[in-house]
Every structure is written in C-alpha cells, then in structure tokens.
Design goal:
alpha/beta, six-stranded mixed β-sheet, four-stranded antiparallel β-sheet, about 25% strand, globular, binds adenosine-5'-triphosphate, ABC transporter ATP-binding protein, ABC_transpr_LolD-like, nucleotide-binding, P-loop_NTPase, ATP binding
Length: about 260
C-alpha cells in the first residue's frame, strides 16, 4: 500500500519563477491496486513519481509504503522496495548482453549473492517461466542479444527485470510513450499480464487516454500539483476517451475564463 500525505514541493521558492510542483498532494493506493495517473504537462506527475522513489526531496509531507514512512530513506534503500520503468526502452537493459544475462544482472541487483552460481539450468528455467508471463515469446530467446529485440520486446524485458525482486510497488513512468501505437499496445498487454500474475501494486503515469480508459482500477487526474479527479469502479468501467479529454478541456476553459 502506498500513501502520499500532504506532499509539498516548491521549486525556486521566493523567486520570480517559483513553481509549485506538488501542492499538498494526497493519494492512497491499496495493495494490489493499479492506479493510472493522467494530467496535463506540468501537472506534477513526474514530481510525484520522483518523490515516491526518493529522487525528489519533499519540502514537507510523507511517503509511506506498506506502513513504513520512507520519506527520509535514501534512494538506493528505497530502490529495494520499488521498481520503476522509464520511457526509453534502451535504458533499462544492456544491449550487447543476452536476454538471460540481462535477467541475471537484474537478479544480481536484487540479491548480490546470486552471480556466483551463474546461468545454471535452474535459473534459466526460472527466467523462462518469468518471461513467458509477458506473452511475447521472449522465453524462447534467452540467448538472443538484447540489441536484436524489437523496442516493444526490449521494454517488456525491462519491465520483467524491474519486477524480479518482487517489489512492493511498481512505478510505470510513461513506459509506452516512446513506442509506436501498435507496439505501445503490445507492451501494455504484456504489462497487464505481468502485473496480474505477480499481483503488483502499480502506479502508471500516461498521456495515452485510451490506456487510461482500458487499464487499471482507478484513474487519478493531477492538476497543479494535487489530485483533481479520481474515477474508479463502475464509473471507470464506463468512461470513454472523450469523457476523459473533457475533464482536461474544463481546465482549459477555466483558464480562458480567468484570463
Ligand atoms: N527540477 C525542476 N526544477 C524546476 N522546476 C521543476 C523541476 N521539476 C519540475 N518542475 C516544475 O514543476 C512543475 C511540475 O512538473 P512535472 O515535471 O512534475 O510535471 P508533469 O506532470 O510530469 O509534466 P509532463 O507531463 O510535462 O512530464 C512544472 O511547473 C515544472 O516546470
């Protein structure tokens, strides 16, 4: 479970270009829940993910993961508890190494003692099983160098590597944004398969409204550093892309009216 309590972050405080990135933001994500975060540019989405991961130090407020206040916990310690997948499919994996070697590296990151026994048959079998969760046939390409994989396969591999240590929280940071629409859909399907099979608590930031409609239990719209709207349950099931876009345009209208 994740709780963000009154998180506040102001950049350039007291200066002409002061920016309130997080404005006493409150958010709660239950264990096993999949939250989809949307919001216009500058709404505070990246700042929120950075605050959760520890890359951004809050001015005030708390980040609590499964009951533990991690606000003061350094990034490397917090990294043991959460996984994050970024936009760039080239970043999460080592191109010149094979799929299996990448999986081993990820395992090493989670548990430093594992390399000693190397790529033994038991380990390869475990990797095959993990990779099969994605539904992309990567389990049959353990010896393929990662640079020969498609962008979608590579991003899906990043995802499965990130969640290898059974994280308490998975952060998806626009992880399909750099992919063409068809590949983005393939990666989303693979994501859902992995998230459901591993029962991961997940927070995904996206600008893709179709993904926000199709996936996750709750849509959370950020605006000016706080939660402006939450849509869950039956309302989430029936919401359409135009409905969601409408919520963005209300904000634009308000800005026009104010000017
Ligand atoms: N390192 C920084 N230094 C100064 N201002 C920042 C910094 N990071 C974010 N901001 C400001 O904080 C506000 C929130 O930015 P943030 O990047 O969190 O928004 P976002 O919702 O992720 O936007 P986008 O969709 O464009 O990625 C913006 O006004 C932004 O300019």
């Amino acid at each position: 479970m994740l709780e963000i309590q009154s998180a506040r972050k102001v950049f350039y405080k007291g200066q002409a270009d002061e920016k309130t990135a997080l404005n006493d933001l409150n958010l709660r994500l239950e264990t096993g829940e999949f939250g989809v975060v949307i919001g216009s540019n500058g709404a505070g989405k990246s700042s929120m993910l950075n605050a959760i991961s520890g890359a951004l130090v809050l001015d005030s407020g708390k980040i609590v993961i499964n009951g533990d206040d991690v606000t003061a916990m350094p990034v490397h310690k917090r990294a043991m508890r959460l996984a994050r997948v970024f936009q760039d499919p080239m970043k999460g994996t080592a191109a010149s190494m094979t799929v299996a070697e990448n999986m081993l590296l990820a395992e090493l990151r989670a548990n430093k003692r594992t390399l000693r026994r190397g790529l033994n048959p038991a380990r390869l079998a475990a990797y095959k099983e993990r990779l099969s969760l994605l539904g992309l046939g990567l389990e049959n390409r353990l010896d393929t160098r990662v640079e020969l994989l498609s962008g979608g396969q590579r991003q899906s591999l990043s995802l499965i590597m990130a969640v290898g240590g059974s994280p308490e929280l998975l952060l998806l940071d626009e992880h399909t944004a750099a992919l063409d629409p068809r590949t983005a859909d393939i990666v989303m399907q693979a994501t859902i398969r992995a998230v459901e099979a591993l029962k991961l608590t997940t927070l995904m930031v996206t600008h893709n409204m179709q993904h926000a409609v199709d996936f996750g239990h709750r849509v959370i719209m950020l605006d000016a550093g706080r939660v402006r709207l939450e849509i869950a349950g039956a309302e989430k099931t029936s919401i359409t892309v135009p409905d969601l876009i409408g919520h963005f345009s209300v904000k634009t209208d308000r800005m026009f009216l104010a000017s």
